[in-house]
Amino acid sequence: MCVWIMLVHQGMFRTECRDGHFWLTVGSGFLGRMFRFDTEGRSGVHTVSDQRAAICGYTMLLDSWGNLVLRASYLACDVDTRVGSRDLMVWFVNKEANDEETSYPFLLTCPLQQWSPREIMCEENYMEVKGIDLEVISITIFYRYQWTLFKVDASVACNKGTMDGTYILWSIPQILPPLVQGPVRNQGARMGVGGRLLSACLIQQRGYKMEVRDGVVEVRIPFGAVGGQIKSHVMAGRYSQSYSVDLFYVQQWGDAQWTLTRHRSFRPLWTTPSPHSPRLVNLTVPEEGDFSVTLGVFPPDVSLANVTIATLTVPLAGAEELGLRVTQVPFPNGTHAYLLQVPFPHPLVSQKVQEHPCGKYRRYTLAVTFTLLISPHREVFTHSASVVCDLQDVVLPRVEGRCTDKTMKLTLHRGNMDTQWAIFFGNHRLEPDLVEFGGYSLEAADDYFTVEVPLYSLGMAYEDLSLQGLLANVAVSVLDVETGAVEQTFIQRCTFHVRELMVCLPNSWMVVVVDTARVVPPLDPRDIALLDPSCRPKEMDRTRALFSFSLDSCGTIQGVNLVYVNEVRYMPRYLPIPQPFFHPFYYYRQPLGCRYPLNGTRTLAIYQSRLWPLSRTRPSQHNPFVRAERG
């Protein structure tokens, strides 16, 4: 067999010699708005119209990929027979959008082949014989008699294919009565595709079947088998596929009149489109740390346009910049699949902590939608999937704390699920507003951040007040943002040294620390008392005294709007009792007061001293305490 290929636009044109036919294929990407074939013979140049093709032995068709195929018999019109070869001059004419025509000449040359005494070639049209749907067509029978080639008109039968489960079924009578004279000597049948006969071994490898049942030859070709072509479609929004194959069938027999008759059939068989859901294969290996999934398998007319992960649509060109890997995986039979790889820690991957009897584990979820296009009309279809992988790799947040002179410094190690958790300081969630209005100081690093909480700030709780200091704490809670469950609680306690402080407790109790060293001249703490002289300090050191008393004792006076007033006074232990509360001279006085909201005494309030010096001989005319927090 001789094959001659044009060098002009190499790859767009292919010419071959196949079993008594010239084949010329033009690539789909080269076809213009309109196109045609012309042939040139002794009588001139002729356009290969449908009518001329049927009369002169030409077949024109578009295969499943949109390629234009011209098949011409060696005995077609305009074929020039020479010594040892046959020639056909063909012009492919392309008409562009501007109506300009461009012609491409091809001189097709194939060697002479050995002919049988009678050759029959089957083409189209329709009839019925012996209960089998058949097509009757006009054919030319070529036969050799005493070294002379003759041609006569005859009839031959060719039927269409049907679907039989997952197979394309094509049937033909083993004996064609109009073509048989007398006893028949069957010399076998062979099959092939695309004009090429196949060996028995190759037929078996591809899953083809050819059997004789009740005098009928049945040819079965599996859907999608090698040798055929799969075409993609979108039907009612669903991805669908059809399958076509160019069957080549050859049958030979002898009878009383002809020693050998060879009957050849070229039968294009195809199926109607049927839904074919793409298959997503999860190739994820948890130890490798990323999702790995493939989607396929697709014929060459399908291409991936983009992927949508979570809510973000990513074009293929920008996938790598976002830390995603999308690659096409080719297969030897011309099909392909698409491989998507996404790291587990990627922001587009959902993470959620789950409970398990053996401990906590992290569930990674990849929600992805593939958007694909079908050539050449760019039909669009999508395929969505959700892939889950569980790993016991949860590292919970960890909190550490330490005390400074006037603050608590807390370090929060993020763990590996910081987006899963909400951090609370007391009843207050750690948010920008809390940092701003609470006076917090925040420093962040890659895997931890540090929060410095002032003593009298939101989130601080107070446990005890003594001359050793103010015992305060901050309770840091880690909550699951989805369930609200408290996963971890850390309490940092610190004792802060205070010189003067007044605390109004929610149980109608007042605790006060006063500093007598600021009085000029200094007072002995043992010489001070409340309005009730019997209410002396509970604790004392050289310069400070602590009072703790109920608001209904120690001479406390209740004013309007739940205001309770008392006073620390100079009350020498060995002198007469001084004059009443409003005595204007000589005696040291430190006013005290608690104000509660109208809903009752259920609020804690802490007051700091303004720290200006006091005199023994001049009573204070101002309130020396400023509220620091109400909680």
UniProtKB/TrEMBL annotation:
This is ZP domain-containing protein. It comes from Scleropages formosus. Transmembrane segments: none annotated. InterPro entries: Ig-like_ZP, ZP-N, ZP_dom. PROSITE patterns: ZP_2. Residues 503-631 form the ZP domain. The gene is zpax4.
